Every structure is written in structure tokens, then in C-alpha cells.
Amino acid sequence: MSDRLHATVLEVGPRDGLQNEARALSPEDRIAFIARCVEAGARRIEAVSFVNPKRVPQMAGAEEVMAGVPRRAGVSYSGLVLNRRGLDRALDAGVDEVNVVVVASDTFCVRNQGCTTAEMLDAWDAIASAAADAGVPAGMTIAAAFGCPFEGETPPERVAEIARRAHAAGAFEIALADTIGVGVPGQVRDLTRRVRAAAPGTPLRFHFHNTRNTGYANALTAVDEGVTILDASTGGFGGCPFAPAATGNIATEDLLYALHRGGVETGMDMEAVAETGIWLGGLLGAPVPALLGRAGPF
Q1: Is 12 helix (H, G, I), strand (E, B) or coil?
Q2: Which of 71, 106, 186, 265 is the most buried (most CB within 10 A)?
């Protein structure tokens, strides 16, 4: 890795990190969490999810959160949306970018979003068009890109075809998500090359979970492949409420340690992130999966 390489860590803790926790945090606590992320140097933050709070009660109050986040030059807040109603809420709340999740397997898509993959792709086309009209960039996250808890292996050709649809509708970015943490570095290399061929010129982002202890190896493999945007969650919290045994995202502080030691700059303060991870664990009443807060930097 080059000494001059820079990677952006997109902080997903306020959304993916909290959506599967037993204790739901108040909008005030979520705003405080986001403010700490900004102070630690995060410049892209997935702050909220505009989904039905009956389905994901931890994400209730998205508008309140967006009304209270610190607005600073260079800081971009994204909101997850799954339909036109969610998009309208996101636009009204003043998000800087929209993240639309399309699950690569039908069974998981129906459980997660109440529709098939093909139906969600049609919804994506409409959301992307409306977001473009509003001047807000829309990106797609392809969930279960490495494997599905219900259908098994996800065919890489299917991921590439979904990426083509994202590209055709003008996605400003495509993220590949290992939603249940089954991926290995060889898959990262293969999917990176397939998606780049299917969506030429569209920036690629990865979203890894460390369910089977491969998340950090996968992240470093993506960087070796030239990917410069990686999702991570402060403290290593996270998971999908609709996927069995889907444990946490890779931890922001642990990822920062690996990147910084490898000569990759991020502009983030890993010790400040680790302190926030410990603080967040206290709010959630849960053990902190991340390791940097225990061991400290070297």
C-alpha cells in the first residue's frame, strides 16, 4: 500500500450499528453519538434510516436526529431508504445522500423489505430518478452480496447484474455488503472486478461484518484492489434484525488501526473513536466487540 493512499471510512454506527441492539437509544443520544463521530474526523456518516419504526423501532425519530446533527463543511449525512415514502422523508429531513438497499436474494429481500429483488430494483429506479430531480445523490448497497442466510451462496453473476441496474440508473456509488459475514478475500477480489466491469466508472464501496473473523482481511483486500471507501461501525456494533446470527460490523477503530499501520491515511482519530465505542457500549448496556479500546494503540 502506498504511503500516499487515502481511504474514506463511512461511519455506519448510528444506523447499522444500532438497528439490532436490544436497547433503543433516544434521538438525543444518537445526535450525541454522531457529534462524537464528527469530532473524531468522520466525514461521511450514515446517520438515520427512513423505514417503518414498527419494523425497526431502534430507528424511530429519524427526522429529530437529522434536525440535531452538527452541520459542518465537508461532512455528509446519508439516510437509508427503501421506497418513495422513505425518500420523501429523507429529502424533507435534509440528508446529503441517499442509500438504497437491494438484497441480492429473493428470500432475504422479502423478509427484509417485503418484496422480491426484481420489485426492489424497480423501486430503486424510481427512487434514483426522483433523488436526481431533487439534486441529492443516490447510491445502492447490494446486500447479501457474498451469501444469503436462507439461500446459501449468492451467485456473483447476480451481483454483477444488480450493479448494472444501479449503474444504468445513475448510482453515484455502489456498495457490496457482506451482510452475514461469510465472505473471504478471494470473493472480494472476484466481486470487485465483476462489478467494475458491470458498472464502469462508478465508485465502489464495501460493507463488511466480522461474524466469522474475516471482515478485516476482506477490508484490507478491498484496499489492495484499489477500493478507497469502506463502511465500519464504532465499537463494532451492528447486525441485521432480519438475518439469523448476523453479528456486528467491522469496528471503525480496529479498521483504522489496520489502515494507519499499513500506511493508509483516513483523517480520523482512532483513539477518539475507541473512546466513543466504550461510551456507546455503556449507553447500550452491552460489551464492546472492538479490540482497540482494550489494547490501545501501538
Answers
A1: coil
A2: 106
